[in-house]
Specification:
heterodimer, A: 196 residues, three-stranded antiparallel sheet, 6 strands, 47% helix, 9% strand, B: 567 residues, two-stranded antiparallel sheet, globular, ion transport (chain B), membrane (chain B), transport (chain B), Potassium-transporting ATPase potassium-binding subunit (chain B), KdpA (chain B)
Chain lengths: 196, 567
């Protein structure tokens, strides 16, 4: 036993140092170099710029509250859509807090648009708190509100939504979804029309 | 549940089966220390490592020596991690100027990453510098995984060798697994992830002015290089708090599928490698069949429950499955499947928040961990854990037919069975005692976010995850306190090494035995009867002790949910 411990000391220490240099520094730094060279846009976070300012990442959701924009899902941590605080609500299925939160959101949606079935993703918080997507149903649900706020023809907005739907790969890998940031950018890109 | 959903699950299973043999062949080459094509590139590095350490890779170690060298090495790694975490404030590449961790948190995290648990009491993007992520955590992700695979090799040699005194050389196993398997796969894997949108930069954050004119700060870093080994090595510690639910860790449904496959890849390959090592690959396929049967049952339950959704929300006029804590791009089936894989495999990465699963969906995740994560299991840990159950199964079969039990040509006697029971008993003992303690002490009761039975589930899940070295959580539990940090660290340590040491003792004892050829009276350990017996032993011995705890937690939670009672 004592001999085993003594004979282990040198390899344990030297291996720790060597692997730390190889796996803790050389590997991530080499991958950073390779990634920045081969896929610079993705390696920096798939950022979207407008007039030199970063206006978002294609992959990360952002908060939208104006009625003229499509709204994302509820975000649990902090103020919501905080890029430095990801996570879910962690509320259990029989949680009073969850029930009250959803009931509040349902009431607000019902008041604006009575009588329409509410897609579940629109009133449930995502796992990351940064979910960039909503379901096609959740996007269609919001068409009337967005069209009204922008004084646009609902069919035009509806068309934008249908064009923005990303389908599952091969029809079964993943779920159909709509990237809210992209959809709202397309809305903004439309020529402004005078209110009817 | 949809046809597309089941097609997705079937595709996943098909891909796992397709990976098993090629991965097994590669692992078997490393197990035997054979030359691979990669030796041409990395052979010099391997020899250099041995020379600097002053070791002879061909020198066989007794099981005691193997165990001691592994333990001292793990201790050195834990110490290094602890120091980096404590000293983070004065170390480089810390652009957000995060201070060092407090002693209890650093202790917990050092043990957590050394034991391949990757339990995280902290939120990565708000606590750790990019230097810490790389130099402490990425490093540990590799080496805790390599340690696990090395231990599996040592275990296999116990079964495969005849009248031998040694079970291999720890340093050779560790170095070969790291250089010829983990590192090259991760280089390719990380590049794929970067191409798919996972960031890889030394920048810590970027400022965004959103379309509505608000300010948003996005955390960035060398994510892809860590993500690759986090999944391949069944580590599961996220770069970000939300883990693989975070769009920067797991941007699309395709990266999600690849991540799920990479959790199972090595564990599945090891079953084939075991069969090859003991001279009959059907032994390996039998083990895989038993594992995948338990796995599929779990997937079916979780998918069914999550797709059915939360009746309490349906009453409010909301239609659809349970999407609380889930991402739209993965949906119900992608999240349900991931949760079963990550808990079956001791990975602990999550792409949805298990705490917000339906009660029975969460139960399956918890139960998978409590079985000892032997359904594929952690890299190395899964297969040697499963072999402990196999020893019990042949013992039970031996009692039934009145013969000395044998397994793959080795007589299984009192010493091996006692050691196997010892290793298997550690899990329920520490999980249940720890949960009981935390359920009565005020420091423990301060942890849960949810009230009622779900709060108890959070504690039970926490201890299960720590002892099982899983690392996933019912994350409502606030575990960043000295009480939980200390207890969980001890639980992780016990759950890792008090299984490993009896397992290595068994390997040493078996290696010394002669080969006993199978006769017409031997219990066959390849057919469906054996697979059924294995499943029964895993469920009864591994699972039964937890039923009272599960009744108080998720089952009570489910009944409350059905009756409409809120907490």
């Amino acid at each position: 036993m004592k001999n085993d411990i003594l004979s282990s000391l040198r390899p344990a220490l030297v291996m720790t140092v060597l692997f730390a240099l190889l796996l803790g520094l050389a590997y991530p730094l080499a991958m950073t170099g390779l990634g920045q060279t081969l896929f610079p846009v993705q390696a920096d976070g798939s950022l979207v710029r407008a007039n030199g300012t970063v206006i978002g990442s294609r992959l990360v959701g952002q908060a939208f509250t104006a009625s003229g924009y499509f709204h994302p899902r509820p975000s649990a941590p902090g103020e919501g859509y905080d890029g430095l605080a990801s996570g879910g609500s962690n509320l259990g299925p029989a949680s009073k807090a969850l029930h009250q939160r959803v009931a509040g959101q349902v009431a607000a949606l019902e008041q604006a648009q009575p009588g329409q079935p509410i897609p579940v993703d629109l009133v449930t918080a995502s796992g990351s708190g940064l979910d960039p997507d909503i379901s096609p149903e959740a996007a269609r649900y919001q068409v009337a509100r967005v069209a009204k706020a922008r004084a646009m023809n609902p069919a035009l907005v509806r068309g934008l939504v249908e064009a923005a739907i990303e389908r599952p790969l091969l029809g079964f890998i993943g779920e159909a979804h709509v990237n809210v940031f992209e959809l709202n950018r397309r809305l903004d890109a439309l020529p402004a029309k005078p209110a009817a | 549940m949809t046809t597309q959903g089941w097609l997705f699950i079937a595709t996943f299973l098909g891909l796992v089966l397709a990976i098993t043999k090629p991965m097994g062949i590669w692992l078997h080459a490393l197990y035997q220390g054979r030359r691979t094509p990669l030796h041409r590139v990395l052979g010099g590095v391997e020899r250099g490592f041995y020379a600097l350490c002053g070791i002879d890779p061909d020198q066989d170690q007794s099981w005691r020596c193997y165990a001691v060298h592994m333990l001292v090495f793990n201790l050195a790694l834990a110490l290094l991690t602890y120091l980096v975490l404590r000293l983070q404030g004065v170390l480089p590449i810390n652009r957000l100027a995060y201070p060092g961790m407090a002693a209890d948190g650093a202790f917990n995290t050092a043990v957590s990453f050394t034991t391949n648990t990757n339990w995280q009491w902290y939120s990565g993007e708000a606590t750790l510098s990019n230097f810490t992520q790389m130099f402490a955590l990425t490093l540990q992700n590799f080496l805790s995984a390599a340690t696990g695979i090395a231990l599996a090799f040592a275990c296999f040699r116990g079964f495969a060798r005849r009248s031998a005194t040694g079970i291999g050389n720890f340093w050779a196993d560790l170095t070969r697994v790291t250089l010829y398997l983990l590192l090259p796969v991760c280089v390719v894997y990380a590049l794929y992830l970067i191409a798919s949108g996972v960031p890889q930069t030394l920048a810590a954050s970027v400022q965004v002015v959103t379309l509505e004119g608000a300010h948003q700060t996005l955390a960035l870093g060398p994510v892809a290089s860590q993500e690759a080994i986090k999944m391949l090595g069944t580590n599961g510690g996220g770069f970000f708090n939300a883990n693989s639910a975070h769009p920067f860790e797991n941007p699309s449904a395709l990266t999600d599928l690849v991540q799920m496959l990479s959790i199972f890849a090595i564990g599945a390959g090891l079953t084939w490698c075991f069969g090859k090592a003991v001279g009959n690959t059907r032994q390996g396929w039998a083990i895989l069949a038993a594992m995948l049967t338990i796995f599929l049952a779990g997937v079916a339950i979780v998918y069914w429950q999550e797709a059915a959704g939360n009746p309490l929300l349906h009453q409010l006029g909301v239609s659809g499955g349970n999407m609380e804590g889930k991402e739209v791009r993965f949906g119900i089936v992608g999240s349900a499947l991931f949760s079963v894989i990550t808990t079956a495999a001791s990975c602990g990465a999550v792409n949805a928040m298990h705490d917000s699963f339906t009660a029975l969906g969460g139960l399956v995740a918890m139960f998978n961990i409590q079985l000892g994560e032997v359904v594929i299991g952690g890299v190395g840990a899964g297969i040697y854990g499963f072999l402990l159950f196999a020893l019990l199964a042949v013992f039970v079969a031996g009692l039934m037919v009145g013969r000395t039990p044998e397994y793959v040509g080795k007589k299984i006697e009192a010493r091996e069975v006692k050691l196997a029971v010892l290793a298997i008993a550690v899990l329920p003992l520490v999980i249940l005692c720890g949960t009981a303690l935390a359920s009565v002490l005020p420091e423990g009761l301060a942890g849960p976010l949810n009230k009622g039975p779900h709060g108890f589930s959070e504690i039970l899940y926490g201890f299960s995850s720590a002892v099982g070295n899983n690392g996933s959580a019912f994350a409502g539990l606030s575990s960043g306190t000295p009480f939980y940090n200390g207890l969980f660290a001890v639980a992780m340590w016990l759950g890792r090494y008090f299984v490993i040491i009896p397992m290595l003792a068994i390997a040493g004892s078996l290696a010394a035995k002669r080969y006993t050829p199978a006769t017409s009276g031997s219990f066959p350990t390849t057919g469906p009867l054996w697979v059924g017996l294995l499943i029964g032993i895993v469920l009864i011995v591994g699972g039964l002790t937890f039923l009272p705890g599960l009744a108080l937690g998720p089952i009570a939670d489910h009944l409350a949910m059905v009756r409409g009672q809120l907490f």
